[in-house]
Amino acid sequence: xxxxxxxxxxxxxxxxxxxxxxxxxxxxxxxxxxxxxxxxxxxxxxxxxxxxxxxxxxxxxxxxxxxxxxxxxxxxxxxxxxxxxxxxxxxxxxxxxxxxxxxxxxxxxxxxxxxxxxxxxxxxxxxxxxxxxxxxxxxxxxxxxxxxxxxxxxxxxxxxxxxxxxxxxxxxxxxxxxxxxxxxxxxxxxxxxxxxxxxxxxxxxxxxxxxxxxxxxxxxxxxxxxxxxxxxxxxxxxxxxxxxxxxxxxxxxxxxxxxxxxxxxxxxxxxxxxxxxxxxxxxxxxxxxxxxxxxxxxxxxxxxxxxxxxxxxxxxxxxxxxxxxxxxxxxxxxxxxxxxxxxxxxxxxxxxxxxxxxxxxxxxxxx
Length: 367
Known about the structure:
Blueprint lengths: L1 H7 L10 H18 L1 H9 L17 E2 H4 L11 E4 L9 E4 L1 H17 L8 E8 L8 H9 L5 E11 L2 E4 L1 H11 L6 E5 L1 H13 L11 E4 L13 H12 L6 E7 L2 E6 L6 E2 L5 E5 L12 E7 L10 E11 L12 E7 L2 H15 L5
Parallel strand pairs: 1-14, 4-5, 4-7, 7-8, 8-9
Antiparallel strand pairs: 2-3, 5-6, 9-10, 11-15, 12-13, 13-14, 14-15
């Protein structure tokens, strides 16, 4: 995967001039997948794509819906690490990573977090608003949250979701006690994890009339989405106000990440809170009815593309998110690459139609 190494070695994580290298790296990845995964090859041929020569743009790549990945276990080579989706719908995607993918992901993470000023050599205390590691938990969101605690030296790690005989249970009281202790210290406090549990903590503190003045350079890093609490998602303005009111953390010290186990690329919001597309990925917005690519500014299904991994065919995946791709030059932060706005989710019955099409191909039905 020579071209993948070259792409993920890019010095500027938002270099808009590397589109040809990105396409070539995708074609390299596609060539591996069709020769190492019979199921992926069937889908490709069923869509009328017979080889690398048929790929002239990233939108031509065969698209696999994430819903299908939750129903079918795709494999395309040897691997070192496996991660799963959260399984909130009852089924999980299984994504495997080989050594080359892990090294590429590491280089990407270092460059992106450096660019956004998240990496630090100053020791801090972590409050992880997510799962405490346990041998039974193989979800990507748990692995990612824990790995994020290495972006600055960890004095301690406190987790809100603890494993019990009945499964994971939230420990809000333990977090409140930790805040009382950390407020008196000098080390910055870094929150990392689900925005839902972080917001629920804000509301709990507000209801009790509690507020803490955490040490300078404390920050909040959000990732993993709202999951089963999607309907209770707070707007950003409300979230930022409560963060300031309860923890004395300003908006500029709140960072949000976007990603998926089926597309393990690190999207980090800029100063204007926009998810600019990094050089390691591409996004195509597709018409929900025809699946044809839409122009910038139009709302449609979010198709995520990256040549990161070869052990699992996640080169081009279709999510159940509805989004808009915006012209990056309109963002005041200075980054010129397009940025993604997530506006909602597609009803399950609609996305199933897309997943069913690929499933039919796997059964030998040409569509």
